[in-house]
Batch of 2 targets.
Target 1
Amino acid sequence: MIKDQEFLEKKASYCLGLAKKLGATDSSVIVKNSISETVNFRNKKLDESNRSDDLGISITTYIGKKKSSISSSNLLKDNLNILIEKCIETTKNTPEDEFNSLPDRDLLAKDVKDLDLYDDSHIANDQKIDYLKKLEAAASSDKKIVNTESSFTENKSNFVLANSEGFCDGYKTSSFTASSVTVAKDEKSMERDYDYSSKCFLKDLDDAEELGNLAANQTIRKLSPKKIGSEKISIIFDKRIAKGVLSTFASAISSSAISRGTSFLKDKVNQKIFSDKINVFDKPDMLKGLGSRNFDSEGVKTDILKLVDQGILKHYLIDTYNGKKLNLKSNGRCGGTSNLYFENGNISFKDLLNSNSKSLYITETIGHGSNIVTGDYSVGATGFLIENGEFKYPINEITIAGNFKDMFQNITLANDLEFKYATNSPTMLIEGMVVAGK
Amino acid sequence: MVNFFKDTDLARSEADNIISDTLRNCDDGELYLENSKSESIVLDDNKIKDSSYNSDLGFGFRAISDEVVAYSHSNEISKNSLKQSSENLKSTLKSVKGTYNHEIPKSNKKYYDNINPIEQKSLNEKIKILNDVNDYLRSKGDKVKQVTANFLGEQKSVEIIRSGGETLSDVRPLVRFNVSVMVEKDGRKETGVYGVGGRQSYDTYLKDENWKSVCDEALRIASVNLESKPAPAGEMKVVLGPGWPAILIHEAVGHGLEGDFNRKKTSAFHNLMGQKVASEGVTIIDDGTIDNRRGSLTIDDEGTPTEKTVLIENGILKNFMQDRLNARLMKTRSTGSGRRENYRHIVLPRMRNTMMLSGKQTQEEMIKAVDKGIFAVSFGGGQVDITSGKFVFNCTEAYEIINGKIGSPIKGATLIGDGPSILKEVSMVGNDMMMDPGIGTCGKAGQGVPVGVAQPSILIDKMTVGGTKL
């Protein structure tokens, strides 16, 4: 069983008390417990079971404008005493930083709502095995599939965040995740693809057979890929890749990148950075949302933000420290975005495929090719050639490149948004990118 | 040495009993205990941004029957907690009828000293160096707009208790010192990053103001990039410099030669053992035994002493990298490559220091042999799809080559290739093998482990460069 609120609060208040006694003028603490049980299958047989029980505490102490922090997985009193003493000692020896402080008291979250993030149901490993048997039977039904791996994870977490301003809150969350990875083979090639489903509530999880079939079909259609020539071409990002464009956008508007001057979106608030029709929301209070939260990792309340309105950047993602540096108030985004998404566009997926006589549909990218200082983008890619709205053949061993400043201005979105991840995008078309191939 | 049972209600003899009882009739397994202490001190934007310390303690209990692995980990070293883990393992492995393999090779060799690098240098000294780095770089002119520098230090103590009570232990120091600098000219911003590290004290790397050379290198890379023009797009010849560009070896062939992917036949290399996978003259080894290197280990995380494993010899595929599980199932022996990020994770076969050995040619000859291509000197990181064999890596410093001469610097671009065929495109191997500076971390299945790479300069006849200039 995961530790209850009372246990976590007790630990938190012990740490705050000791820090104060040892000379901290302010302090904050997070105590977490998370228990996961995973079962992995391979080729229709049990491959691995894994149970993890993780405890963790992290404490930040302030002496005036000096700050330091410690973290540990050992919550025994003797260990906490040693660590907090060490933390205070380090704080004393760390230079002052005028922007160090706890969040402003009036920004701390009050009246915390129940966002329906915890499902108490437990699925025993034997039931997980039943689910995976069905999944793998479906995934391996085509004889081109030569290897299947799948897993089912149940996770329950609880945490308490407390600070010396009197904030003390936390809540349980749960997640149930099933995934399917398949390898397909023909005379010429071997390819791998995957799909997964992750939900707060067990009953919302995708059907096992559906998930297995999806992964298998996505893999088989990649077989016998071709390499194409280098050219300027329109790119269509599958939803699972399109959300990455949004994640890069989020890193580029984080207040730390902005205050350090290391973002291509610095000083762009109230300027048009996307094409006209683009709206971006970050909505923390979605019921059962995979990114939902009542407050950020400093305890600051999190309102809905319309980050981009008709192509115009409206907000950065602001935490307390960088907010003070930029002379802006925290908007509760310490730790990043919550449920971040592009609002639907107004054309269908089919029309998007048809909007150019020739385009590339990208289903996977590899490499760490996003540079948020310059906006340059260059990654390896796998996908399909689209001609006149039809999937022609699979392609691989190509790269796609551009600069986000231009890419953002050339985005067209389909109307097929789903909330499958914490960050979500409809299928995305970007005109004028460069493909390097043969 | 850490006594993991001190201050717990669990006596060592009781632990031995639970372990032996749980692993009876299993093929393998162990209790892995770990205590790590780590620190991070960061200077950023003219200030000490972070001074933090982490102490992590926990165990991972593993039982293996045939192909099935049962694993359970917890932070609480106690009778209850170990018993609960034991129950979890038993419930997964309902009917086991194996024979526990007690055999584990021994060695007295050690590849680093038992030190705690965090305690060897005071906080004030570290802060002073970080401030000196900031002042030094910012004194280099107005174009320097941002400086980040940090110390990362760790001491990890591990103990492996096998069925029957056999105990293997290791204490591993690890440090890293990094500098990142952003420069700006005419509204254009570029970054340069450099770092040093390994399994020794900070001072080994920073003595005699050696930190200045780290700063100089970061600034040099950033300044070169300020002058860079768009990279070309398409297939061309590529000359790789020595040292860190060996990320290519790591991604293109290293991952594909890990035992698990080959046992499962999901690696593009699984049916190529004994065959020619690289040009003549190409020899690649994975070596855990180089003193004080970031990827070196005295014993791996299953207790097997590490070794120097020949992967490819003169172009022929010779060995995969193995942990105990995959070695047993493939009827071979562990190469001491069983590693895990920490006690939260299961063991996987992983790389240590992956190196291509020197040949006879010079870098000059390679450049001369290229009509149109690029010369890549420094890289960010890479990634591979081991099934299709396609891999990428990202240049952070590269130049065009025109008619046998090095030309202008080009913008960071991704290079993509095919693992099983790329080494056949190597037409020259340099005489200038160099180790990387000791900053690499390899990710696999969500686990990061410190690794090293090395190579001489090499000429690759055909690779796709992912620039924007057609």
Target 2
Amino acid sequence: MAVESTGEASSLSQSRRLFAVLSDHRVLVSLVALALLPWLLPSKALAVNVLIYGVVVMGYNLLFGYTGLLSFGHAAFFGTGAYLTGIAIGRWGLPWFAAVPLAIAAGTALAVLIGAISTRTRGIYFSMVTLALAQLVYYVALQASSFTGGENGLRGFTVDRIDLLGLQINFLDPVNKYYVLMAFAALALWVQSRILNSPFGAVIEAIRENEQRARACGYDVERCKLIVFMLSGAISAIGGCMSALHLSIVPLDSLHYQTSGMIVMMVLLGGARSFFGPFIGAATFLILEDVVSLWTPHWQIVVGAIFVVFVLFLPKGIWGTLLDVLPFARERR
Amino acid sequence: MSTALLQADGIGRRFGGFTALEGISVSFAAGELTSIIGPNGAGKSTFFNILSGTLSPSSGTLRFKGRELNGLPQHRFVHQGISRSYQITNIFPDLSVHENVRVAAQAMRVSYDIWRRRADLVELSQRADAALTAVGLIGKRGEQAKFLAHGQQRALEIAIALVSEPELLLLDEPTAGMGPEETKEMVALLERLAERRTVLLVEHKMKMVLGLSQRVLVLHHGRLLADGRPEDIRSNPDVRRVYLGQSEGYG
């Protein structure tokens, strides 16, 4: 536009300021949006799934979006978080608040192991190694059926009540369940935001932009990759814990590579490298799945086609594109 | 000559059966601007990569301020005080100009802190601005690096290398792909940089090198052909033979 009236300009600068304030408080803003989610979506079950996969994808985004490492094995950390939560509660009789930290620790430990092997490779080799190692975890879970329930999945660990500070919360009520699980999401969002704002958050972006230059600047790139792999696995494991508490079963499929692929699709739909994109991506994918599977059992064909369109025409995903298009949001994320 | 900052003894490098470098022994005094020249394939880049830790030598030893550098991983070189730029522009394209330099400054201090706010590291930001001022890019600090003009990207790369306050600055063809105007500006910048630190330059443009350097090394077929002041190099019969038939402007 050649001439812009001062009124328009000042309203633009106002919205720019407002947006800056909002992105400085992105954890809070995200939580408000998530708190409204169950009342915006057609079912509570869908909202819970968006919450859970949003957290998993957020953890994945730390590795893929911010560091530029394409892992095809993140189901391993999601699944490990879920299985360990179930095993700790059902087999070892631990309360949920002990099971969850244990499960996150297990997911983190597995991420250190897989990360230590995979981050020695680059590009497509990295993706293939993560895929192979995650499938290894899948087959271990399949074979160790006395421990994991094998093909039938892990059952028998229903959490129906959460006791918190003298408060007894009926966990079978879908609304209660959603808001209890949102506390886990809040933790994940806060940790993710701290990491992204930290000096280390700058290092991973530098590595994504130019690994060689980052090394020449004096960063130990391999060690940084291992650390971010570990953090990413840990956050995805939180999503696994949430899933186990929500479903009261852990399907074997949580560890399957299809789950890993779904995580990749969700982050690309929503927008890699954006803070809230993972939740948008999870919502988009799950809504598409819900809607399309109503009229055809081959919903994956339709979702796949939409995904291809996204990759070709909206490489920044829904949220990333929106932030690029809105005039007041440009240059901020 | 004063004490040697960097000392190379019998440096050699083989790639399979091919010998890229053989028996290079040379020392660099603090405060000098030295250029390395030679025809394509002479081993300039290999030598440069060895000096900056990108490659390790197959034979020979490298000492910086008396400390042996052999076996040191590349990312430790900058912590010793050796910083480099690349022949092909090597920046962080999607980051802002300021962040490009700030993240380089941060490498000298913190790598693994995942909890503090990086906005609180004010001093790093100031040092980045100082480096941007030194290369004349402070006016572009908020722009995305990939939108800079070619010459400005080269200057940005030098700011990235400079912000670690290196004692030895290695610059690989800083004027590559530049027009005459941009080259002029870059030469002025190099002269300013060389006033305060030791600079080692790989260049193709003979005329520029001879005008700028205090000392020139000529590599040919992986060996040191000549080593001396620009006027000696100009009249050296061996050098003239290697460059025979080539203009003085572009060697």
